[in-house]
């Protein structure tokens, strides 16, 4: 697979658009996903509008990148993020969201992770991607392993939840 456009399999990537405000507002303010996004408080529309307006800035400046994931009909079904971008050590963290449960389990996230790995290699020149996943998130663990990420360690009692503490596992994908 080579990168000729920002598409792979059933999905394509596109940058954030002003029209995404309400979608991102809904996603970011859903308490059901706060644990995986390390969020504690809601985001205002004002803050998210500013975030979208600044999203055109270069990843080398902001150290992060968000792409919207669209399905084959052009509908935004999720987002993929690179964060803690480190060009010297050629690595970044990666996170992914396929928001609506009806779109989960259809291979969209697999296609998106594979495309982002290719983008990270061919465009950004990265050597590795990593993901932090709580041990109770078996769907994400399966997804990342399927794409080639390997378990490299466990952070004990890393995430505090209303039910107690969760371990968080670190997964890594060496790109080149």
Automatic annotation (TrEMBL):
Pathway recorded for this protein: Siderophore biosynthesis
GO biological-process terms attached to the record: siderophore biosynthetic process
UniProtKB keywords: Transferase
Gene3D superfamilies, sorted: 3.40.630.30
InterPro entries registered for this protein in UniProt: Acyl_CoA_acyltransferase, Acyltransferase_MbtK/IucB-like, GNAT_dom
Recorded superkingdom: Bacteria
Domain N-acetyltransferase positions: 11-171
GO molecular function: acyltransferase activity, transferring groups other than amino-acyl groups
PANTHER family (UniProt xref): GNAT-FAMILY ACETYLTRANSFERASE, SPERMIDINE N(1)-ACETYLTRANSFERASE
Name recorded for this polypeptide: Acetyltransferase
Organism this protein belongs to: Sunxiuqinia dokdonensis
